[in-house]
Design brief:
Blueprint (H helix, E strand, L loop, with lengths): L23 H4 L5 H10 L6 H10 L34 H14 L2 H4 L2 E3 L4 H5 L2 H12 L8 E8 L2 E8 L13 E5 L11 H14 L6 H5 L3 E2 L12 H15 L20 H12 L3 H5 L1
Parallel strand pairs: 1-2, 4-5
Antiparallel strand pairs: 2-3, 3-4
Helix pairs in contact: 4-10
């Protein structure tokens, strides 16, 4: 049986060339990790190896594969600003991280002392055996057991949600500051608790990696609470919702989170569509280059 030809593989092309003879699927190929890296090098900008590995996972090179996306390129062309909501564009992990870093800088230093956050890809990477040990090592450097709140953005199956560790700096048997977990999801119909088994394994391994004294039984009893938060109206808003959850939670989290007072402000009327819309406009006003620095 003859080998199947993969289109234009035999003819090398200059992807940066405006030559109209270049195949249209190649012309459209602008956002794979190779192109991002080439752009940064051309402009003498540096990128860490960790971020390069992240790009390889989130923006693979798809030339010569049958899975190459053939979406119509925006008539607005390539611009610095990313108009997320207006274009109904779902955030990818790179964009999410840029906006989260920018959002984090906007919080006061005093407020940030109670919080830390994990990289949005770490949970997904933890689910892969080959990268699990690395993820646990990275988390160890975040000193999460010294913080009242740990924000864990999660992206699985193309959907964003927010996991929050509360009072992991306290004894698991504390009666006044009970450690617990919150899972905020703007798409309740997707069944947020489908992640519970993986979350509990994730948490147990974090405790184990840090040589904590808590037993498996105690760790397994940490409550996982899923408040009924405002819901997205389309399939593209989940990343923006998670950023807004983070923004509001950091601003309004109680000094001591109590299960007796749950869900606090986190209910279906937590915020208005207008408030969410204004927040998205703030995101749209941030040039990608500014968010990266």
């Amino acid at each position: 049986m003859g080998k199947r030809k993969l289109g234009h593989e035999s003819n090398p092309v200059d992807l940066a060339s405006p030559n109209p003879k270049v195949p249209i699927d190649v012309i459209k190929h602008r956002t794979c990790w190779l192109h991002v890296l080439a752009y940064l090098r051309a402009h003498k900008m540096k990128m860490s190896r960790q971020r390069i590995r992240r790009l390889q996972l989130t923006a693979p090179c798809l030339l010569g594969t049958s899975n190459f996306p053939r979406r119509k390129r925006s008539e607005r062309g390539v611009k610095c600003k990313i108009a997320i909501s207006k274009q109904k564009k779902k955030l990818n992990s790179g964009e999410f991280e840029c906006y989260l870093e920018n959002l984090w800088r906007s919080f006061s230093e005093d407020r940030k002392t109670c919080f830390t956050y994990l990289d949005s890809l770490w949970f997904n990477l933890y689910l892969k055996k080959y990268s699990r040990a690395n993820v646990l090592t990275w988390i160890k450097k975040k000193h999460i057991f010294s913080k009242k709140y740990v924000l864990v953005p999660i992206v699985c199956w193309g959907h964003w949600s927010l996991l929050i560790f509360c009072h992991f700096n306290e004894n698991l048997q504390s009666n006044t500051k009970t450690p617990c977990m919150l899972l905020l999801d703007s798409l309740e119909m997707a069944n947020p608790r489908r992640l519970e088994a993986d979350i509990r394994k994730f948490v147990f391994d974090i405790y184990k990696a840090e040589d904590r004294p808590e037993t498996r039984e105690l760790i397994s009893k940490i409550p996982l609470l899923v408040p009924k938060v405002p819901q997205q109206t389309n399939g593209e808003e989940c990343g923006n919702f998670v950023l807004y959850f983070i923004n509001l939670f950091v601003e309004g989290a109680p000094e001591n989170f109590s299960i007796d007072s749950y869900p606090y402000f986190m209910d279906k009327n937590w915020f208005s569509p207008e408030g969410f819309g204004s927040f998205c406009e703030r995101l749209e006003s941030i040039p990608l280059e500014s968010a990266l620095h």
